[in-house]
Structure formats: structure tokens, C-alpha cells
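Progress note, sequence design subtask.
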């Protein structure tokens, strides 16, 4: 596989949120010809280049960039330090319960095992964390986050890139003019309902999912509007990236035939597309929202709001989107 010198990611997955991008991240990480950063959703092109990168600013600043940095720091600590160190077989909780700690278990034992079995991976992960959490704010820093890919295909999976404005997409294009663009689309009514169920399940909603008026107000929030404004996003991104650089898939493909979807994406990315590269867990659901049937009144409110988007994507794509439009019209009948 012929590769150009590393200059940042080869592809950007720009969305949409709650459309299967976490599943995609986990599936692509299993392919030996693909390398993805340890952190999903780098959100670099949301960032303000003028935002401070001093440690104090990152720890206590209110800028979105600082909040993203703290979120990823918590995630990496929980993944690689806190959970294993506290709850691993040799972690502090087990040590307290048993009255003794065995050096070979827990976080440090796991890290020693990684160092012994795969020193390259150990130092690569460590170097990436140092580079990510110790730097920031420049295009050179962002591109260097992908140096570990070497000859492998690599990408930035940040579904909120769908919400970028024209100036932010122009900035991405100046840095990555040859990048391939991956976009997963989902019925905006079902996408919003899945997001609302997830927030409800996490206890982040102050109202019940049967409250149609409250649901409609949430759906009209500017962030929620942007997350499902496919027409705006496609207009902005397609002004910079030509059709040959696009891969567009639909949530139904993931649900009904994930193997075929991955094979098609592998071919688009230029990596080996064979049955042996399909992960065994390809049909496992990832970050599924808790089940809750959509009340008819809620469905009507959402159908009214998203009808223009549904008419646009149906005229543009047909196929699955025709079903989306017909379902919305049925809710309004």
C-alpha cells in the first residue's frame, strides 16, 4: 500500500452524532492497516487557535477547548490509571480488602506486562498521551497526533464536525485538502429520540420523555438544530470537498448489514477488504440508549420540526430517506 508522508489524518468522520460513530471507531481500530488515536472526538477544528494552552488555563479555563481537554484527561485517567489502580486485582480497593498488594497485578502490573510483551506499544501510548496533554493549539501539534500511524491509514472521528461553520470547514480544508470525508446519516427524528433517551437514562433531563412540549423545546435548542441540519452541513462541506472524497452511509446499513458497510468503507479507505477483517463483535450494539417508546404526541412534534430536513434528504438521496419521510408524514396524519 503506497502512502504519502504523514501530514495529519487521511480521513475525517464528521458525523452525525448518535449515528453509529462510536461503533465505527471500535470496528476500525481492529483493522491492522488502520490506526486511530486513543481518544475519539479530538474536536480540533472546533477550537479557537487563540485559546490558551497553559496548564492552569486547561485545568480551570471555561473555553470549549479547555473543557474538551479536561474531559479527555478524565477519560484517559479512568481508562489507564484510576479504574485498574483502584479496582484491578491488585488495585487499592482489593489491597485494602485483602490487606496486601501484589506487584504483578493492577495498573502498574498491567503496564509492566505491556512493556514486557509489547514495548513499542507501551512507549507509543505514553508518547501520544504526553504529546496530546502537553501540547496543543497549533496545526503542527494536531498533525503530529497521527504520527504513530506510520504507514497505516488514520482518521479523526469527531461527529460534531457536522456542526462546523463555513470558516471552520475552510480551516480544515486548508490543512487537509486531500482528506476523505466519512458521514453517517440517520433519520433526524430517530437520531434526536436516541439522544434524548440517552440523556434521560443518564439523569440529565429535568422532565419526562412523555412531555411533548418539553421535548419540542429541547429539539429547538440551537445545538440540537445544528446536529440534524444535514442540508446546512452538506452545503458547507461539499463547497470544499468534491464528491470523489466522500463516503456517505445510513444508519440502517449499520443495523441491517454492518459487514457489507465495513467492506464498502474499507475499499473507500484503501485498506484490505476481506471477510477476515470483519470483527467478531461487528453486530454488537455500542452505547445503546435505554429503550423507551416514543409517545405519539412527541412523534408529531418532532415530525413537524424535522419535516423540511426530511424532504431535503429524500430528494437528495432517496433510498432509506424515503422511508424516513413517509414515517414522519404518517406521524402527522
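Output:
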Amino acid at each position: 500500500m503506497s502512502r504519502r508522508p504523514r501530514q495529519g489524518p487521511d480521513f475525517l468522520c464528521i458525523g452525525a452524532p448518535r449515528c453509529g460513530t462510536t461503533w465505527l471507531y471500535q470496528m476500525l481500530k481492529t483493522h491492522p492497516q488502520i490506526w486511530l488515536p486513543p481518544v475519539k472526538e479530538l474536536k480540533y477544528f472546533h477550537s479557537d487557535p487563540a485559546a490558551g494552552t497553559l496548564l492552569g488555563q486547561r485545568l480551570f479555563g471555561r473555553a470549549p477547548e479547555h473543557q474538551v481537554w479536561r474531559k479527555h484527561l478524565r477519560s484517559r485517567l479512568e481508562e489507564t490509571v484510576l479504574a485498574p489502580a483502584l479496582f484491578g486485582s491488585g488495585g487499592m480497593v482489593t489491597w485494602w480488602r485483602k490487606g496486601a498488594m501484589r506487584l504483578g497485578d493492577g495498573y502498574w502490573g498491567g503496564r509492566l506486562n505491556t512493556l514486557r510483551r509489547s514495548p513499542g506499544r507501551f512507549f507509543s501510548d505514553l508518547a501520544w498521551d504526553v504529546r496530546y496533554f502537553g501540547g496543543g493549539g497549533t496545526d503542527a501539534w494536531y498533525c503530529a497526533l497521527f504520527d504513530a500511524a506510520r504507514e497505516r491509514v488514520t482518521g479523526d472521528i469527531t461527529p460534531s464536525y457536522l456542526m462546523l461553520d463555513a470558516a471552520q470547514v475552510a480551516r480544515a480544508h486548508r490543512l487537509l485538502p486531500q482528506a476523505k470525508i466519512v458521514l453517517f446519516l440517520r433519520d433526524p427524528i430517530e437520531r434526536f429520540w436516541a439522544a434524548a433517551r440517552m440523556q434521560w437514562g443518564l439523569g440529565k433531563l429535568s422532565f419526562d420523555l412523555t412531555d411533548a412540549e418539553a421535548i419540542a423545546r429541547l429539539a429547538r435548542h440551537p445545538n440540537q438544530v445544528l446536529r440534524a441540519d444535514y442540508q446546512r452541513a452538506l452545503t458547507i462541506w461539499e463547497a470544499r470537498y468534491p464528491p470523489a472524497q466522500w463516503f456517505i452511509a445510513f444508519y440502517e446499513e449499520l443495523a441491517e448489514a454492518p459487514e457489507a458497510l465495513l467492506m464498502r468503507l474499507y475499499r473507500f479507505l484503501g485498506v484490505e477488504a476481506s471477510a477476515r477483517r470483519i470483527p467478531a463483535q461487528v453486530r454488537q450494539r455500542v452505547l445503546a440508549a435505554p429503550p423507551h417508546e416514543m409517545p405519539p404526541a412527541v412523534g408529531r412534534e418532532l415530525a413537524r420540526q424535522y419535516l423540511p430536513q426530511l424532504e431535503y434528504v429524500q430528494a437528495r438521496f432517496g433510498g432509506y430517506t424515503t422511508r424516513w419521510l413517509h414515517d414522519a408524514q404518517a406521524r402527522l396524519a
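DSSP finds 16 helices and five strands in the chain. Work on this subtask will continue into the next period as scheduled.
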